[in-house]
Design a protein that fits this description.
Helices cover about 25% and strands about 35% of the residues.
C-alpha cells in the first residue's frame, strides 16, 4: 500500500539505512528499528490529518509508547531500502495496539507489537481520544492476523 494512503489496512513508510543507523560492521543497531517504527506511526497519523504537534496544540492530546515486543529475524544493512509497516490491531478509547513490520523487498526483518497510550498533553495522564479521531481510528482497526 502507498505510504500516503493511511485509510488502508496496511500503511508502509519507506526508509533507507544510513551510516548513522549502523554499527562498525554496517549492520543496523537494534535501537534504530524503534526509531524507524516511531517515524512510520507518526507519518501514518500525519496522513490521517493528525500530525503530532497539531494534535497536541488543537486537542491537548499526545501518544506515548507503553510497551513493545520486538522480534528480530534478519539484519538490515547499510544502504538497504526498507518498508516500515503500520497496522492498527486494536483501538480503545485511551489506547492503541499496532502491529509493525520492517521489510526489505519481500523479506521480513522485524515484527513488533507496540502498545500506545493516549495522554493529556499538559499532565501526561491517560485520557480518552477525542470522538472524531477515535471514530476514524476505530474504522481502520484490522483485527485479522496475517501470520
Amino acid at each position: 500500500m502507498s505510504a500516503h494512503d493511511a485509510a488502508t489496512p496496511r500503511f508502509s513508510w519507506p526508509t533507507r539505512v544510513y551510516w548513522e543507523d549502523t554499527d562498525a560492521g554496517g549492520v543496523v543497531y537494534h535501537a534504530r528499528y524503534v526509531a524507524f517504527m516511531e517515524r512510520a506511526r507518526t507519518e501514518w497519523m500525519r496522513a490521517l490529518g493528525y500530525g503530532q504537534e497539531s494534535t497536541r496544540q488543537a486537542h491537548g492530546l499526545v501518544f506515548a509508547v507503553r510497551s513493545m515486543r520486538v522480534d528480530f529475524f534478519k539484519p538490515a544493512r547499510l544502504d538497504d531500502a526498507l518498508g516500515v509497516e503500520v497496522i492498527l490491531r486494536q483501538c480503545r478509547k485511551a489506547s492503541l495496539v499496532f502491529e509493525q513490520r520492517i521489510v526489505r523487498e519481500d523479506t521480513l526483518l522485524i515484527d513488533a507489537e507496540v502498545k500506545v497510550a493516549a495522554l493529556d498533553a499538559a499532565s501526561f495522564r491517560p485520557r480518552g481520544i477525542e470522538d472524531a479521531l477515535y471514530e476514524r481510528l476505530k474504522a481502520l482497526e484490522n483485527t485479522e492476523s496475517e501470520h
